[in-house]
Every structure is written in C-alpha cells, then in structure tokens.
Amino acid sequence: MLSKQMIQLFENISGVENVQYSTASLLAYSYDATANFQALPDLIIAPRNTSEVSQIVKLCSTHNIPIVPRGSGTNLSAGTTPTSGGVVLLFKNMNKIIELDEENMTITVQPGVITKAVSDVVEQKGLFYPPDPSSRKISTIGGNLSENSGGLRGLKYGVTKDYVMALEAVLPNGDIIRTGGKLAKDVAGYDLTSLFVGSEGTLAIITEATLKLIPKPIYQETILSLFRTIEEAAETVSAILAAKIIPTTLEFMDKGTLEAVEDYSKIGLPVNCEAVLLIEQDGAQETVQQDIDKIYEICAQHGAINVSKAKTEEEAEQLKTARRDALSALARLRPTLILEDATVPRSKIPQMVHAIKRIADKYNVTIRTFGHAGDGNLHPTCLTDIRDEEEMERVEKAFEEIFQASIDLGGTITGEHGVGEMKAEYLEWKIGEAGMSVMKAIKQGLDPKNIMNPGKIFAKATKKRMVVHNG
Amino acid sequence: MLSKQMIQLFENISGVENVQYSTASLLAYSYDATANFQALPDLIIAPRNTSEVSQIVKLCSTHNIPIVPRGSGTNLSAGTTPTSGGVVLLFKNMNKIIELDEENMTITVQPGVITKAVSDVVEQKGLFYPPDPSSRKISTIGGNLSENSGGLRGLKYGVTKDYVMALEAVLPNGDIIRTGGKLAKDVAGYDLTSLFVGSEGTLAIITEATLKLIPKPIYQETILSLFRTIEEAAETVSAILAAKIIPTTLEFMDKGTLEAVEDYSKIGLPVNCEAVLLIEQDGAQETVQQDIDKIYEICAQHGAINVSKAKTEEEAEQLKTARRDALSALARLRPTLILEDATVPRSKIPQMVHAIKRIADKYNVTIRTFGHAGDGNLHPTCLTDIRDEEEMERVEKAFEEIFQASIDLGGTITGEHGVGEMKAEYLEWKIGEAGMSVMKAIKQGLDPKNIMNPGKIFAKATKKRMVVHNG
C-alpha cells in the first residue's frame, strides 16, 4: 500500500488523470494472459513522456517501489503480473509513431504503439516490418521489445531483436540512455540494444525505439498441406529446408489444434488428418512460384494426403489468421489454457513432438501442439482447469518434463514467450550456474535495488531437475 | 615481468612448446594492425582446448595478470595490443571446424579457424556464411566475434553478430559458460551471445561458436559505375535503395583510393573519375538480372560516366578483391596509414564525405575515403608518417573532428573496427555518460579484477569535445 502522500507525488508527475488506484483498476492490472498468476499492484500510472518516466523511476528508486512496465498484457509467462506489488506503468499516452524515415528505412515509435499499426503504416510506403507475433492486433511494440517477440515469419526474417536499431530507455536510477542509431553497423562498446531487448523490463524501461524496415516483398503464396502422421509433416519440414528453400512461414498444427481452429474460424479447414503444415513464401513472383512448386512436390513426396494453394490473398490471409487464432480457439475448450514454447533445433522436431505426446499420456493431461515448425518453436498447449488442484499438479509435472525433454534435445525453455515469473525457476536448467551468475551480475550492476520488474527472470530458487525414467 | 616460477605454471597447463617468452616472440605480439600502439606482453600462450583456457584464466585471475586474446592481429583499433602487458592468448591450436550441421544449417568452430575457411567449407555444401571482413583471408573467426566484424555484404546480410547462434566462453573467473543453441528463437534470459560478440575480449574468452548459415545464393552479378562527382555517387546510392533494391554490396571509393587500388592490382580499373561504386546483387537469376538492369538505369540517370558489368565470375571476383585490397594498396603510399570507420545513417553520406574533405583540408592531411556506402560505413584513411610528430598532431585533430562530425550526423565513432584502445577516449561522445555507466557496471560485474583485455573500450579519461567553428 502506498500512502496518500506518496500517491500525490506520482500524481504531481503525470497528472491526477493518469494515475489510478481504485480496487477495480488494481484488479484489472493484477494479471496478464498467463494462467495461475495474479497479484495486486499499488498504483497504475500512464506517463505522458520520457521525462515523466524518468521522474517516476527516480521516485520509485528513492522509495524502493517495484515498477512493472506493461503493454497490452498479452504476456504468457507472467512477465507483467505485479507479483511484488508496486507501480504498473502503462504506455497508452506514449503511443505515437514519431518518424517514418523512408530514406534510411527506419520507423521510430513510442512503446505504446500497436504492433499491427506499425506494419500497416510502413506497408503503405512499400516497406515491411517483419516481426508478427500472433497477438499483433493488440500487442504493443513496447511489449514486443521487452519480450523479444517472435511470430510466424521468424524462420526467414528473424525476431523483434533483429529489427531494433536504436533505443531510448530509462535506467533504474532514472537516467535516460540512448543506444544504437540509424546505423547498419555500430560497434561502439557493448551491444546494449540487444541486452535491453528481451530483458523483460528488468533492466530498463524502453521509451522509444527505432526499428529497421526492409522492402515489402511484392508477391506471396500460401499452401496448406495435410499429413496422415506427424512424422511425415516433420520430414517434410526438413526436406523443404534441405532443398535450400527458406519459406517465410512454416507452421505446424496437430489434429486437436486443427479441429479447435476450424470450430472457431469455420473457414472449412479439412480435419481428416493428423498434422497440417501451413507454408508461405514471399519475394519476387518467379522465385516464389518456383519455391512453391518445389514445396508442393516435396509435400507430395512425403505422403501429404492433400496440398492446396490459397487462390486469393483473402484466402491466404484467412489461413494465417486461423493459425494466429489457435490460442483463442483452444481457449474455448476448457476453463484454463497453459501455453508453452519449448524450442528445439529444428531437426529435433519429430522427437520433441513425440516426447510431448508421451509426457501428456504419462500424466494423463490434454496437450495440443501447434507452432513454428521451421524454427523448432512448438507451442504444446495444455487444456486444463486451475480449480482442479490435483490435475494442476499433473500439468505442472508434465511441463517440467517437457522442459527437460527440450533441453536434452539441445533446446531451450522458451523460444519467444520469455521467462517471466512462470519459468524463472527453470532458467538455470538452460543456462547453467555460470549463465545465472553472469545474468545476476548484470542485473545487480544495473538495478542494485531490484526495483525493475522484480521476481521476473530471476527466481528465489531453482527447481531441482526430476530424475525421469523413460522405459 | 613474470617470474620463472609463474611461467612454469603456465607451461604446466599448455605444455612448454605452447608457451613463448623470447624477446623476439614478445616483440612479434607487441602490436597489431593499428599504427602508433605498441607494448610488450609478458608471455604468449597457445592453449590446446577450452579446459586449458579456463586454467590459464584462473591462474591469471589469482595473480592479477592481464589477458589479451588475439586472432591474426588484423585489428585496427589497437584491440589486441597488450598495452598493459600480461598474457597474449593465441588460438593456433584451437583452429578446428567441429561440426557442419546441414540439417540445422549451422557450423560449429573453434576461434582459431580462418574466416575464409568457414566460407569455403560451407559453400561446398550449397550453404553460405555471409560475413566477409576484408581481412577474411587471414582473420580468424575468434577475432571476428570479438570485434563483431562487418564487411562488404553487410547491407543485405548484416554483420558477424547476426550469424552467431551459440557460444562457449571462459569467464574472467575461469568458469565455462554456454550461451544460445542451434535455435532460431531463444529468449531464456539476457542475450549473452550478443553481449559477448563485439565485447573485444573484455568480458570473456570465446572458445567455440555455432554460426548460422543460409542457402548459398545461386547467381550474382557485379557492376562498376563511375561518377564525375561524389554527390552523384551518393545520390545513386540513395536512389537504388529508394527503388527498394537492397544490393549485396554497395561499395564506394574516391579517386585517390581508386588510383592506389589500380596501381596495386593492375586490373585496368578506370581512374578518370571522382568516385566509383562497386555494386553486387545476388539471389535467384531473374531477380538479380532485374535488379541489376534497374541499378544500371539508376546509375545512368544520376550521371554515371560509365557503367560496366563484370562479364565473368573471375572478373567480378577481381573487382571485389581489388576493393578488399584497398587498405594494402593505400599502405604503400606513405609510411603510416590510419584507417577510420566513422559510420553515419546512409542518408548522410554526402554530408559526411564533404565533412571529411573539409577537415582534411583544414588540417592539411592526406585522407582518402572508401567504404561501405550502403551501410553509411566509410573508411577515411589517412596517409601519414608516425615519425613526424607535428603532422601526427594534425592527424589526430583531424580524426577527432571526423568523429564529431559523424556523431553530429547521428553516426558512431566505429562501425566495424571496434573501440579498442585507440577510440576508448571517444566512446562517451557516442554513448553518453549513462551509456558509459551501464557498460562499466557490466564490465565491473563480470570482471571485477579487470584482467580481461584491460584498457580496451574503457579509457582512463574521456576526451573533451573540441569547440569547432566551421565558418
């Protein structure tokens, strides 16, 4: 609880109208899209500019008040849940596109801008901002930056980090820092831009970003390919890449996901198969057509029961939207949905899909899997009910075993959703003691008072790895 | 000076045959490719594996002995000059290609592998490692990683960092850390891979790296375009990019560089012009041909006096080799050559080229300029003589003013050569006090004893910015 006096100090900075602390408001910002994490903040503030952010941080620093920056709350690892209370920072007043620089192919934006708004604006100029997290219609650039969001185009175009050229950020002591520039190359000291992107609000508050753009691909084609077995789908993925084709999108859905998506979107997706690949290529028309022809052939060679090409742009968009809505579609099936994003080297996808199936059976939980097959980034999604404690225990054990399987296959505990609070206990499994000590040294060096999104990334204790006997 | 006893401890780790301390050896490793920096190390060690590196680092840590990791010594910012003495680490015994993984499109190498050897090996499999620093025939991957090397293909393909997926490194306390993985996406904590790449040996000793590969472009064309004025060349660069074409290579040479290069390479380069652009495009044949036709047209529209296409692959390679040899060519003209790499947003190239000319005139020094025009990464190169103190003072002032001009245009003090010891005094001009404090906190957190390449990146004092009156 903050004192009336303290609240007034915050109001003096950002104006009474931008500070909330009613019970309804505090409740509204007590959770994000992650199941099973909730905690009340003490105050919600929506600063109007960088200077206000700096003043707020200084005040928080002086009084040891935690700060949780928050975009649209689509976070899936409890990264924006205010589990230590404190101040939730909103960016609804810092949502401007500052500059679109066509000559240097950059766009400079405030953190509150919606991801899709950036894409739309630049595409009107023949430019392209590739990162496209599934939540892009509501997620903010600030959230994408904090989480280093991925998306459906990661295979060919990379993730958010690959498009960040410069940042303005407020440090834990309130100082304002500028990193990078509109520069294709810059090696002036440590790469702080890459350090801050994906740091989940634990090192600095990003207040402005300059993003790299590329020319918009002029042509694209999308195909959908159905398979009798998951192996066939996985082998097709490998074969496409072995043919030296890097599609823009190479998405996988299992039967269960496909059924839910069709039931939700009603676009006439075929469901009489065990696995489906949604494949998109973009670029120059001739190249795309050649690639798609070859992909078509590869799908057929690997036992596809049906391969169909989207006939119009609308049809292609419909397919991609259906895939992006997988999460919403699955969410309707049971009260609670827990989405994971264990990621493995792409050659290990068949093993990983099998491991997930085996683990789901072992713990008798319902897991449906979809994800970015080309990236090795799968989203095993558990349909459950947090009110059922006994089931939740089994769910937790199943996910622990999925993390272990992923790491044993050379993978990671999170490909694009972040560590947040949800996976903090497992981080050491991936990065080891030495990795933890380096990350802690950085955190301690920059944020000695631990006011920046405390509890995220760094857990109080690391989970012990289970001894798993797979007979 | 290390005691006999101490030297023996190092010999116990890596074997007598891998430890050198004769005066000749110490002299041989007392400098790199940077003019005007020289200092004797105490010992040269060539460890045979990561475990030995770890033991060496532990020993150095215990006894506060500086460690300078060194590739082939092509560094241009005194990054590998042992200015604090100590141990120079060589990687000639750690020069193996560990694995080429075609399915995941990665190559895992030790730091001592020559850059070009990596390119050659992967190209035989239809794969491609894009980073191509001009020194690639002799530079090592370890050096490229420490410096985040750029090269001629940066515009389209990015720099070394964009191709590093995983690292093994030895921390300042001797612990071995592994970052990343063969993973297209990984957000498990802070991006230590990006932090270590480009950290110039000040945070960790990289002992292994997994590099990302892409399919080898199947076709390429190269053209050379001559211009009467630098403005015309610069406008051509802007016009090509405005046409939404991103060439692989978009290199600039001024008349003085061109003359030196022709004199060196004798391949019949035309020298009757003020500026030349070397432009390469790669990809699918149809796309490349379309792009090159359009580029041809744009060059003509912007006043090119001559545009010629390389007729064979050999001819194209000859042109690129000539450009890569610019440094060697210029080095023959006067006793000392100082190469800079101030980098600006690409739209600012004309202003930057003019600023360089004006500054060279003002201080009466000879500067020739070439570089990566598409990246805004210019290499103003001063031909001088370090034995002439009075001239060297003017040279230093000229470079200071070039750094200022670059920063005033939104640029940086170094695009691809690193800060090293040479530019440490200027780093704060680019990144500000807040940037310095963050970088120092990271350095202090990881290397509290300051044994890792001390004196690099961080200077004892920052240069005061001159008050420049440009009338």
From TrEMBL, chains A, B:
A GO cellular-component term linked to this record: glycolate oxidase complex
Cofactor: FAD
EC number: 1.1.99.14
Keyword Hydrolase: no
InterPro entries attached to this UniProt entry: FAD-bd_oxidored_4_C, FAD-bd_PCMH, FAD-bd_PCMH-like_sf, FAD-bd_PCMH_sub2, FAD-linked_Oxase-like_C, FAD-linked_OxidoTrans_Type4, GlcD, Oxid_FAD_bind_N
GO molecular function list: (S)-2-hydroxy-acid oxidase activity; FAD binding; glycolate dehydrogenase activity
Gene3D superfamilies, per database record: 3.30.465.10, 3.30.70.2740, Vanillyl-alcohol Oxidase, Chain A, domain 4 (1.10.45.10)
Enzyme class: oxidoreductase
UniProt entry keywords in alphabetical sequence: FAD, Flavoprotein, Oxidoreductase
Source organism, top-level taxon: Bacteria
Domain FAD-binding PCMH-type per the UniProt entry, residue ranges: 37-216
PANTHER family cross-referenced by the UniProt entry: GLYCOLATE OXIDASE SUBUNIT GLCD
Similarity comment text for this entry: Belongs to the FAD-binding oxidoreductase/transferase type 4 family.
Designated name of the protein: Glycolate oxidase subunit GlcD
Lineage, uppermost ranks: Bacteria, Bacillati, Bacillota, Bacilli, Bacillales
